Amino acid sequence: MPSALAQLPVPLDSANGRLCNTFRMRVYLGSDHAGYDLKNHLVQWLKEAGHEPVDCGPLIYDAVDDYPPFCLRAAERTAADPESLGIVIGGSGNGEAIAANKVKGVRAALAWSEQTAALGREHNNANVISIGGRMHTEDEATKFVELFLNTPYSGEPRHTRRIEMLSEYETTGELPPIPAHHPQG
Ligand SMILES: O=C[C@H](O)[C@H](O)[C@H](O)COP(=O)(O)O
């Protein structure tokens, strides 16, 4: 069950006063130097939208820093807080998604369009969004995050079945069986 914190509806579109049908979310953010500016922008944007951003770093701009220390921390904290979401940001978003997906319980989706941002939630129940800060304008990336936060998981049985296969593999290391009607290699 969502906590009281998570149940508070907040206006996301303060420009026109539209009250979006969403929840206040705790959001853990991590990046590297290439995602540093966008991360800081999103921390501010999330605050203004009534969410609770938690900045997992970097807290200074360091042109030679690496994404794993910060993105793994953001991902671990997201996994440990089931009512939260995470955002990892780098130049491409690729390494950051790879890093986040190493953490048990994380499903990180690389968003490169509005549709992939929404589908990450709708089909994959992703709890982390990865964004390439060098691939998009600030406005585009902000829109991806807004869609990610506002889109619910569909709960469709076929998607749940696939997600459960991955969780099972993550836990046991055992491959899901190939369906009987498929040719076996
Ligand atoms: O997948 C990794 C990310 O895109 C990194 O942000 C990127 O590799 C950093 O590149 P550089 O160290 O050349 O700034």
From TrEMBL:
InterPro entries, sorted: Rib-5-P_Isoase_Actino (IPR011860), RpiB_LacA_LacB (IPR003500), RpiB_LacA_LacB_sf (IPR036569)
GO molecular function, a single term: isomerase activity
Keyword Ribosomal protein: no
EC number(s) recorded for this UniProt protein: 5.3.1.6
Pathway assignment: Carbohydrate degradation; pentose phosphate pathway; D-ribose 5-phosphate from D-ribulose 5-phosphate (non-oxidative stage): step 1/1
Catalyzed reactions: aldehydo-D-ribose 5-phosphate = D-ribulose 5-phosphate
Oligomer status and interactors: Homodimer.
Homology family: Belongs to the LacAB/RpiB family.
Designated name of the protein: Ribose-5-phosphate isomerase B
Organism of this sequence: Kitasatospora kazusensis
